[in-house]
């Protein structure tokens, strides 16, 4: 199958990055979200990011216009799914929400369409099992920020067919990504490591080992990380990271118990860059 049209369900941090990357690489993209405001914010964020690339000479005006014209916004999932070849779900990391979206996509997408989830930790088998097309379900796990990060992890569920895997790999490659194929296991590869590192950095902050700025500086300069684990948590979103850790704690045990400070930040609405404040202050929503 030649994938031409992709629906991206959920227009948050990841959805907008997937939509932008797909549109830039020539796919027609339908962006969907239950929140009208999220769709508008996502589109203006994509526009701003592409304009930045043009100003830096990384993209032509023509390519920017072409990419923007490849993106349509639709807040009804039945309309969003109705003529696509692939749907990529990038909604909140809650199993019931993902299953509900998959049920609807199964009902509204053409029978040939593949349904992928961008989950960072959860079982694609469990998500795909609510559909009547489990063989056409898979996880395509992109990384944040999607336009810059080179990897897409491909995780097949128990019922996923070989042809679904091949199509997912091909689409990821056409989007400029390298792939790795990972067997289904909570957290797959990078997220399983990253959740642990970030949680430990938060534990150190809670214990008063050093300031947030100095913990990040120590890890960047001492371990050669491009970004400190606390800032990275602000990029990921503290609510998303908390859900990741809760899931990993449930399936992989005690070492993934979320740091109590993480609950506090989330309760205070300090969700990270997407709201302008998290562990650090950013002044504006990014
Ligand atoms: P986010 O919180 O930024 O955005 C989630 C969006 O989903 C929101 O705009 C929300 O309105 C929307 N949404 C919720 N229920 C919906 C529904 N029923 N239909 C349509 N839209 C719905 O979350 P983020 O960070 O973009 O994460 C999305 C997924 O990607 C999660 O599964 C997460 O684990 C995964 N992920 C996140 C990464 C990150 O760094 N933030 C990296 C890789 C994967």
Automatic annotation (TrEMBL):
Domain annotation 3-hydroxyacyl-CoA dehydrogenase C-terminal: ranges: 187-282
Matching entries from Pfam families are given as:
3HCDH (PF00725), 3HCDH_N (PF02737)
Q: Which UniProt keywords apply?
A: NAD, Oxidoreductase
InterPro entries named among the record's database cross-references: 3-OHacyl-CoA_DH, 3-OHacyl-CoA_DH_NAD-bd, 3HC_DH_C, 6-PGluconate_DH-like_C_sf, 6PGD_dom2, NAD(P)-bd_dom_sf
Residue ranges occupied by any 3-hydroxyacyl-CoA dehydrogenase NAD binding domain in the UniProt entry: 5-184
Domain of life per record = Bacteria
SUPFAM superfamilies per record: 6-phosphogluconate dehydrogenase C-terminal domain-like, NAD(P)-binding Rossmann-fold domains
Task: Tell me one GO biological process term.
Answer: fatty acid metabolic process
Does the keyword section mention Cell cycle? no
Q: In which pathway does it act?
A: Lipid metabolism; butanoate metabolism
* Residues where NAD(+) binds: 10-15, 33, 93, 98, 120, 144, 274
- From the UniProt record, which GO molecular function terms apply? NAD+ binding; oxidoreductase activity, acting on the CH-OH group of donors, NAD or NADP as acceptor
Gene3D superfamilies xrefs: N-(1-d-carboxylethyl)-l-norvaline Dehydrogenase, domain 2, NAD(P)-binding Rossmann-like Domain
Q: Where is this site: Important for catalytic activity?
A: 141
Give the residues annotated as coiled coil. Answer: none
Q: Spell out the family assignment given in the record's similarity comment.
A: Belongs to the 3-hydroxyacyl-CoA dehydrogenase family.
Which protein, by its recorded name, is this?
A: 3-hydroxyacyl-CoA dehydrogenase
